[in-house]
Fold:
Amino acid sequence: MLESKRHFQILDGLRGVAAVAIVVFHFMEIVYLPSQNFIGHGFLAVDFFFCLSGFVIAYAYDDRTGEMGKLAFFKRRLIRLHPLVVLGTVLGLLTFLFDPFGGSADNYDVGTIILIVVCSLLLIPFPVMEDRFFNLFGLNAPAWSLFWEYVANLAYIFIFRKMARQYLLLLALLMAFALFYVAYNSDSVMGGWNGETFWDGGARIGYSFLAGMLICRSNWIIRTKLGFFGLSLLLLSAFLLPFFAKNWLVELAVVLFYFPLIVSLGAGTYQDGWLTKVCTFSGNISYPLYMTHYAVMWVFADYYNDNHPGTLQLAIIISIGTVLLVGFAYLAMKVYDIPVRRYLSRKWR
Structure:
């Protein structure tokens, strides 16, 4: 059924651009504070993902959830999302136990490690790893956003899909105020990834997911000829923004207004020729890249702390590392993610 609907190739491509940006950001934040590196706002890619997710879920399922039912919807989402949650946990565990540059596995007893693994596999927040800044998921830090993605999906199937557009708009405005409160108090919208800022993640996905839904239901789609390259530059400009005196206001404006605009433009842009293949590839590897890259980041952090490489060496390491991570994401998609999802789809059908 989903294949009969239009496919938004540009939005697929932009998802990949955002995934690569966040990989580079994670490399860079190990070396420099966000305010001191060139892609210091790369973490905002998560908010773009949330907005895009709301748009895609509403577009794909608004007119079909009634006929497929709640359980079938959640099975679909579980099959789509969870295999890579498992792979990210396994990779995180391997690099945690066998970090060639030291690591901190000796600081934990076997029982605690088993509990950390189980919670990571089941997406149960468990911020107990002090040496990893109390990440909600110490073995695979980006999984915090997947936790909130599941929450948003449950809210969609039980609440949002039945809500009239005016009530969705009212709820989105309330979440915008919640996000304003978070940004003002924290001086940033960066929270949600650790125990201390847990509820910030709820405000981030609450607004952006609803904004994406509203774009779809209201048909707020802007026709443009910017194409994939033009919109990629617009998206990247948000991640490359410098830091300002009232930086939290800038971040808030990007999340509240700029990313919904990018989604609206992306939904109204058509792409043909060889760039369609680029968009398809970019979209396909975006989620595998996002969910598998962070195992390498802890190893890189230990390497950096031990060796303190120079600027040129860092540039080479980060450039090659990003390319290799993209290649690994493609391999993970082909060898693991697609076969597992096909198997589960056949079994549950």
Q: What stands out?
A: DSSP finds twelve helices and no strands in the chain. The chain has a mean pLDDT of 95.
